[in-house]
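Re: export button greyed out
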Amino acid sequence: MEIGAVNSLSYEDFVDTFGNVVEKCPIIVAAVWSRRPFASLLDMEVSINEFIEALPESGREGILRCHPDLAGKDLQSGTLTEESREEQGHAGLDTLDAAEIAHMARLNTQYKLRFGFPFVICARMNNKATILRELSERLKNDRAVELACAIEEVKKICHLRLKTLMLHDLPNKL
Amino acid sequence: MEIGAVNSLSYEDFVDTFGNVVEKCPIIVAAVWSRRPFASLLDMEVSINEFIEALPESGREGILRCHPDLAGKDLQSGTLTEESREEQGHAGLDTLDAAEIAHMARLNTQYKLRFGFPFVICARMNNKATILRELSERLKNDRAVELACAIEEVKKICHLRLKTLMLHDLPNKL
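Workaround output, generated via the alternate export path:
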């Protein structure tokens, strides 16, 4: 998929295609459509990241609060977005045993009580062991450091979702 | 529903409950959760409006681009959000005849080509006749005036969705 074809999309097709590159935040790509034409996929990704960074702190927290828990109730009940389901599955979070699920839930709860947003990590770049280790480690961060850290993970997730769409899904949608 | 009960909601319950007061933009209430405690429902609504106004222009355009067309393909195919379906139905947009649907579609297309976002109006405060008249009239606005006008409509929709949730749905969800 060439960037020229992306640039020619109506805002409706653009939001339909890229709306979930940041989980449940279609407003972000809907806003970034205003920045066309993009010189490259990287240019588009930079525009998304700049939009995220220009949000007030509460807006960046809001992005995180639109994310599901890892190995949480949305995974158990089948209500994850397609992208999250694939990513959590890729990291092996859909095959945890009961003790592992309970352990993850305890840490997720501690994290949410401490920071007021869920633990977000790029599951495709991790596995069950590294996710649990990072969750325990990042619980020790102070709040400002952790917010920045979590937003960097959002950008990594976005990067991989964009790449996947450009390589695979997009030609079928057009 | 008392504001005290709203203030005691976890971010997850808050986003589950109020996530669509601005159409398909749960990030907005997810961000505004950081502003608790709210003194009143009005105070919460003011916080939402302030968040919207603090967005860059592209972000306000992004909000509009998350809205469906009035009497458009989402209404025809049954893919509107529950709130939009009720509102468009209230204004009689679900009982247009073929000629009226075609007329509305032509005007919607003209509007989107001119402004790069869809025509948004608070359907609950209007009917088929006033919506068609406003659509024709607002097509003549210059872009900055029209963006501001459309965002004021988003706030009216949000106001009525908030009131409905506080009066009816919320006690059942808690």
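The first helix of chain B runs from residue 3 to 7. The button fix ships in the next patch.
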